[in-house]
Amino acid sequence: MTGSTPFSIEKSDNFQRSFKKLAKFHGTGFVELVAQVLEDLLENQYPQNSRQEPLPGKIRLPEEWTFHKLELRFSKGASGQIRLMYLVNANTYTIKLVWIYSHEQFTKRPADADLKSVIQEILDC
Asked: Percent of the chain having pLDDT more than 90?
């Protein structure tokens, strides 16, 4: 996309911790997959395998932010079904990575109270 403003990606502390745990379990191939997915997000913030995600609890995002979940498959089984949750601000061209987890860790998604806390922490920075 020539001429368009490039997006930047910011990794939350929670994302870093959750990624490290999955990378330790899955190894180098997983790290490479996530690196490619993040590179692709810079070009297309709303890929086909993503959807806008409902917000946890009574949290309200500032108007310019949206919350999304991207589904990836790394390997067979629940541990290979990976979800990446992220915030997008189309006004400032920013993507903030919230959480990455496997279906084995959370069948639906992390608890609303935990998500709310992480999102609030990201927005307060």
From this structure: 73
